[in-house]
Amino acid sequence: MRDSYLTHLRCSATNATFEVDRLHGLSPAGRPLVCEYDLASIAGDVDRDAVSRRPRGMWRWRELLPLPASAAPVSLGEGDTPLLDAPRLAAALGVRKLWFKDESLEPTGSFKARGISAAVSMATHLGARGFAIPSAGNAGGALAAYAARAGCTADVFVPADTPIINQREVLLYGGRLHLVDGLIHDCGRMVAEQREALGAFDVSTLKEPYRLEGKKTMGLEICEQLGWRVPDVVVYPTGGGTGLLGVYAAIEQLSALGWLRHARQPRFVVVQATGCAPIVRAFAAGQHEAELFPDAQTCASGLRVPKAVGDRMILEVVRATAGTAIAIDDEVLMLATAQLAATEGICACPEAGACVAAIAALRATGWIGADEEVLTFNTGAGTKYAELLPAS
Ligand SMILES: Cc1ncc(COP(=O)(O)O)c(C=O)c1O
Q: What is the pLDDT of residues 285-296, one digit of tens each?
């Protein structure tokens, strides 16, 4: 067993390679860097079933994560969330099988824990002592918690109308909260301007290479939980898109290792809100890059990302897998959130409600067939959106 199987970082646009032993932001081309592993050696050294027998948590996928085995991760017990079968809702929507990867059980109540655990672990391993992040809500809370866990500082920049619980959790964990009169891309600009003065490493989505690797573990777990195979369709609530890219990368890597029963990708569906749908728009227009979505508004705060750094990569995955992209109105996604709670007992975030509504819409047009297996995500706990919950 080697200490690390991470060989290098690769620019997602130019394929230029970079060494792994120092902190990196975007590539010199201004594009995300992605991790490359020595998969041939992992295939020789690691037994798939031995990974399944390891103690629970995302760090049991150690060989497919960037942190060397000799370094201790910054962890709060993230990963190994349930894959919930939803038979009553599947019947109501008219699909054969429907699963929810329930990320509401993560530390800090959302899937952001995985990416932040990976990013903070790698950055502190490489010497960082402070972090800054632009956030639509949940990522900021997660960063504040993991920074506290690592004994580091966290500067969290959020739009001033971010859900109140996301603001309070940052303060609770001892983070510094910066309220910004603007949206997440404005927060991102402020992080870039202020990070040096703050002595902070910028952990914006895809502006550093390791959050993606943490999110990848959702895909590794899904394949394992399904008996080392993939569903027909993966429906993903897309803001910055790291989760979607992570699940795709997980399936690519497990296929290359020969750990899957069938080496194929599911069709990936990007779900956004009608009030902020840059990827949906770009997909419909046949573009390779998304334009800034003007006056972005939606109650599904995690989807309020008017311009994603990884737009090209997301569009590539959707097209490469014969997927699609769909936008849902706020009223419709809130009704679907309530339907999910009442039919399956899953208290979901509105972003997950958008996915339920998207499955209904795609089933109605026949894009999803009646005999297909569909997998989607509850990316965060519904209780974090208390102000949106029905009062009667
Ligand atoms: C609950 C929730 N769902 C979905 C998303 C979007 O995730 P991604 O950035 O991976 O597209 C976010 C991001 O803030 C979120 O908080």
A: 999 999 999 999
Ligand 1 pocket, mutate which of 100, 101, 112 (most atoms under 8 A from CB): 112
* Among candidate residues 189, 156, 143, 169, the one with its CA nearest the CA of residue 306: 189
Give the chain's residues under pLDDT 70.
Answer: none
Most informative mutation of 100, 114, 138, 271 for ligand 1 (most atoms within 8 A of CB): 138
Ligand 1 in reach of 302 Cβ (< 6 A): yes
Q: Candidates 110, 270, 280: which one to mutate for ligand 1, based on the most atoms within 8 Å of Cβ?
A: 110
pTM attached to this predicted model: 0.97
Nearest Cα residue to atom 6 of ligand 1: 239
What CATH number should be reported for the domain whose range is 112-202?
3.40.50.1100
Write down the pLDDT at residue 321: 98
The region, left, alpha or beta by phi > 0 then psi within -120 to 50, assigned to residue 15 is: left
Domain residue spans of the chain: 6-64, 83-110+209-388, 112-202
Residues 23 and 20: their CA atoms lie apart, in Å, by 8
For residue 240, how far is its CA from the centre of ligand 1 (angstroms)? 7
Q: What is the pLDDT of residue 361?
A: 98
Residues whose CB falls within 8 Å of the CB of residue 73, separated by 6 or more in sequence, listed in order: 59, 67, 117, 118, 121
Which whole-number Å values give the CA distances from 142 to 136, 188, 326, in the listed order?
Answer: 12, 17, 28
- Per this entry, what is the length of the chain? 392
In tens, the pLDDT along 149-180 reads: 999 999 999 999 999 999 999 999 999 999 99
CATH annotation of 83-110+209-388: 3.40.50.1100
- 345 C-alpha vs ligand 1 centroid, how far in Å? 21
Q: Are 311 and 289 in contact (CB under 8 A)?
A: yes
CA of 155 relative to ligand 1 center, distance in Å: 19
Asked, colleague to colleague, whether 83-110+209-388 and 112-202 share their fold, the answer is: yes
Ligand 1 atom at minimal distance to the Cα of residue 240 = 9
